[in-house]
Amino acid sequence: MSKTVSIQTNPRKKPQPPARQLDSFVHGEAPPPPKAAPIRMKRLTLDVPADLHKRIRRACLELEVDMAFELRRILLEHFPAE
Hints:
- The chain is 41% helix and 0% strand.
- The chain is built from 3 helices and no strands.
- With 82 residues, it is mainly α.
- It has a domain at 44-82.
């Protein structure tokens, strides 16, 4: 006599929408606009003097921005798309 037992998935593992979406749904607000397609990124390795790195890092800390974000902004400003 064989016995078959079905095992259900763990309900805690189901993907949940972000809390902000749930809050807006409960309050009857419109859902947020869909995010734009991600931009394909390429890694760029660059050697800079230690004191320059320290100055960039300090400036980014004061501005409360990510170092990579700020360097991307500077590069885009210097090399605009045509």
